[in-house]
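Justification of computing resources. Each target in the renewal requires a structure prediction run like the one illustrated here; the chain below, 250 residues long, is used simply to show the kind of job we budget for.
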Amino acid sequence: MRIAVAGGTGVAGRYVVEAAEADGHDVVVLSRGTGVDVRTGVGLAGALQGVEVVVDTLNLVTGKRSAMTDFFVGATGNLHSAGSDAGVARMVVLSIVGIDRIPGFAYYRAKLAHEEAALAGPVPVTVVRATQFQEFAGQILDRIRLGPLATVPSMRIRPVAARTLGRTLVEVASDPVVGPMREVAGPEEIGLVAMARRTVQVRGSHRVVLPVRIPGATGAAMRNGALLPGDGALIVGPGPEEWLASPDVR
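Resulting structure tokens:
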């Protein structure tokens, strides 16, 4: 099967590419590095010729909700338009568990708009909502540098390894009977602060992790488990400690 991966060089996307190629699929990476700009649509029509399924792992994190929303909705519209013209049979769109339960968070509002635009288009779509990546704590540690200190939001998570999620997205892409929505989560709940502290230990760093309580209803929802999966979620390993012992930790 010919599979196109939008965002195929990102955290999750590169594992989708890896898993799809390991299964013998013909993989097309949709990125500016391969001459395709999903934001503008340049190169998209040609890249989608012969593609049966598009896996959308696109991401953009900025401080402005409008910029993120415009990116997600615009790119999704381009994928639908070019995909419909090219005869693409399905799209699989990566999203986040619980974003409809977190009020006032710009990134999650933009991702909800992403979901809505995807489900409204002409190509049939499965939205895969995943919990935070096992890599999430490390990403925060790398992004927020205050000398020896690291500030990490207090929240309950049930993290999933990006590598495992990439494999799961390929399995969903290969299964035409999957419905319009699916949740995927890791096997164990852990606090993000605890995950960050364990990541610091495994990296051999001496940074001190300081918990931060995000104010208002947004922070309360995150601390009270709004980002945890529902009962029907697909649960996939490894758990946090097993993942922390893997080569994927950086």
